[in-house]
Amino acid sequence: MLLLDYQNVLIQSILTERFSGAPPISIDQVVSDFDNVTFHVSTPSAKSKILISIAVKCFRELLKYGAESVLQREYGNYITSPEAGYDFSIEVDLENLPPSAEERDELIRKVSLLKRNAMAAPFERAFDEYAKLHEEASRYTSESAPQGVKEGGEVMAIHYREEEAIYIKASHDRVTVIFSTIFRDETDRVFGKVFLQEFVDARRRAIQNAPQVLFRSDPPLELADIPGLGKTGEKGEIGYITFGICYLEYCFFVGQSDSHQFFSLDT
């Protein structure tokens, strides 16, 4: 299985070079990432001021689930007005960089994780909601728990591709993440089966903290109230991959402090 970095390596490389003390130069580079995400790295106002912009198909949905507060937390004073044609922009002044090498490296890391941080919002909300529901459910038996605790939170839908989406739902005993995916031809379906089997085998072999993974061609019960998901395509090419994270796995991910990175979209 190919493991990809979470950060955008090209942006990381550009900033590392610019932060090294080399003379400022003009930059105007468009960077394509997975899932139709586009970056623009440029110096429109001055060679010493680098503007990094991102365009994400599902950005409005991410804002609905708290992306603005997450991005504000991560980038603070670096945030500037979005560049035309893009959803979010930050500006780094090479003449006003953090004083220590460690702080500069951390800034490079944060900027190169711009896509990851934008996508983190619904996952953070789901894990926060799970923690609240789990605590509340501990006060009741399964029969006496209020309906709101039994049913869990809302299903958050992130349409990150034209025909595919991520659905995230918190309940009192788990966070469920569902990917709808399309396998256009038989070769894709074979590769998809091999990929999914890796998750099943990993849990069976040695990784006790690995989440449960299920694959089915019809929508899972968690998506019963989502309109338009009843069909699996003319050839059954639409499938649903479900990751269920229960309490012990949640504790493990929180301990790692990067729970949403498990579901990196770079596939």
Question: What is this structure's SSE topology?
Answer:
Elements: H1 9-18, E1 28-32, E2 38-42, E3 49-55, H2 59-64, H3 67-75, E4 79-80, E5 88-93, H4 101-112, H5 114-137, H6 147-151, E6 155-158, E7 165-170, E8 174-182, H7 186-205, E9 212-216, E10 238-246, H8 247-256
Antiparallel strand pairs: 1-2, 2-3, 3-5, 4-5, 6-7, 7-8, 8-10, 9-10
Structural notes for this entry:
The strands form two sheets. The chain has a five-stranded antiparallel sheet with strand order 1-2-3-5-4. Strand 2 and strand 3 form a beta hairpin. With 267 residues, it is of the alpha+beta class. Helices cover 36% and strands 22% of the residues.
Q: Concise description?
A:
The chain is α+β, with helices and mostly antiparallel strands. Helix content is 36%, strand content 22%.
Number of DSSP-assigned strands: 10
Name the structural class: alpha+beta
Radius of gyration: 21 Å
List the total number of helices.
8
Write down the secondary-structure element order.
Answer: HEEEHHEEHHHEEEHEEH
What percent of the residues sit in helical stretches (DSSP H or I)? 25-40%
Task: Provide mean pLDDT, rounded.
Answer: 83
Give the low-confidence spans. Answer: none
- Numbering strands along the chain, what is their spatial order in the largest sheet? 1-2-3-5-4
Keywords for this structure?
single chain, 267 residues, alpha+beta, 8 helices, 22% strand
